[in-house]
Amino acid sequence: MQILETNRLILRNFAATDAAGLLEYTANPRVNCFMDHQISTLEEATEEVEKRSSDDSHIAVCLKDSNELIGELFGMKEERDSDTYGIGWNFNARFEGKGYASESANAFIEYLFTQQEVRRLYAYVEDDNFRSQKLCDKLGFRQEGCFMEFVSFVKYEDGTPKYENTYQYALLKKEWLSQRANQK
């Protein structure tokens, strides 16, 4: 992926120096959907950043002044609709409340719509993940629906799956273009 820069951030492929930062926010996932991506050791984090370093679907979000990893964005192209991407984000809690998620996601969305010719973006957000719901709203996504008991990432104490209700948000390129025109 080409390197993207915002006022305060750099968006780039993962690098070996990102292992400790990745471990910091993946060791104890705060959102159940990231439980499958939980990393427990620096060795596991090193292996993961090595895999991600050549994978354009995972983008490291780093502070411009220090190159410190503060989170990630991801975008997966739909197999059946090559102009449709599912996107998401995962950030270190230490850096919340500073606007980094919206700043980086805005840059990523612009890149996907203008450089990759994407037509449609969507994001899945659990019904109890209020921060991501607010971010979707801020980014201009519209809520398309709620899938009841859609997926399970964790189990109850008795071993049965805990199913989560999940919202689907979406944004079309033409909606994004219209929103940008109205902001001027």
Secondary-structure blueprint:
Blueprint: E1 4-5, E2 9-12, H1 19-26, H2 42-52, E3 58-63, E4 69-77, E5 84-91, H3 100-114, E6 120-126, H4 130-139, E7 142-155, E8 161-172, H5 173-183
Parallel strand pairs: 5-6
Antiparallel strand pairs: 1-2, 2-3, 3-4, 4-5, 6-8, 7-8
Give the tags:
alpha+beta, acyltransferase activity, transferring groups other than amino-acyl groups, transferase, 184 residues
Describe the protein in words:
The chain has 184 residues and is of the alpha+beta class. It has one domain: Aminopeptidase (3-Layer(aba) Sandwich). The protein has an eight-stranded mixed beta sheet, sandwiched between helices. The model has no long low-confidence stretch (mean pLDDT 93).
Reading off the top of the CATH hierarchy, the class is best stated as: Alpha Beta
Using DSSP, what is the number of strands? 8
Counted up, domains total 1
Provide the gyration radius in Å: 17 Å
Fraction of residues in helix = 25-40%
CATH topology: Aminopeptidase
Q: Which class best fits the helix and strand makeup?
A: alpha+beta
| Terminal-residue CA separation | 29 Å
Strand portion, in percent? 25-35%
Q: What is the overall number of helices?
A: 5
CATH superfamily: Gcn5-related N-acetyltransferase (GNAT)
Low-confidence stretches: none
How would a textbook summarize the main sheet? 8 strands, mixed
Rounded mean pLDDT score: 93
Instruction: Write down the overall geometry.
Output: globular
Q: What order do the SSEs take from the amino end to the carboxyl end, as H and E?
A: EEHHEEEHEHEEH
Using the 3D structure, state the CATH architecture: 3-Layer(aba) Sandwich
Strand order of the largest sheet: 1-2-3-4-5-6-8-7
